[in-house]
Amino acid sequence: MKKKDIKILLVDDEPDILEIVSYNLSSEGYQVYTAKNGIEGVSKAKKKLPHLIILDVMMPEMDGIEACEIMRNTSGLENTIITFLTARGEDYSQVAGFDAGADDYITKPIKPKVLVSKVKGLLRRLKEEAASEIEDIVKVGNIVINREEYKIINNGKEIVLPRKEFELLSLLTSKPSKVFKREVILDKVWGNEVVVGGRTIDVHIRKLREKIGDHHFKTVKGVGYKFVL
Known about the structure:
It is a single chain. By secondary structure, this protein is of the alpha/beta class. The chain is built from eight helices and twelve strands.
């Protein structure tokens, strides 16, 4: 996918950030759209169906957490990469963001060039997925994973998972009973170029246990996680 075809939506209530960040991303060749609050952000996301959404947390009218939850339940946005902009020290926002379905977070303040680098790292996943030749539909026990459509069928019932939860489940079920080390999970699901908090995996595993079944996920203390039938 060429840069000119990649759509990025930037949602922030600070005009300076919208102007500076959109200018730098546009200069890189991306299609950039902006919104000044969560309500406007949701509306534009539904219309434009961007590949990447950069979403501020603290905004008037509708905050980023609520906006993210709505976006994740919107048809056409299931595979969109969503990253939050959070102020330093807002650990609660990071956890809430992952719970809402975010893929990553970027800590403010951040220099424009560093942000552009982060964006390139996030978008690199699109290229990796496009080049991937893994089997599209996999059946593990009573669970059917459709990687092409990002759908999960568990005991005949369709379950909608946020992007990172889906990718984590897909990784763990690729080799049932194999223990995946935490560093391997971070590398395969989030990528080496992305720095995430230590609780990121735990939050996503907890959500998967709630949706798929607690008995399917076993914690190997000090090592990582494995999927069991």
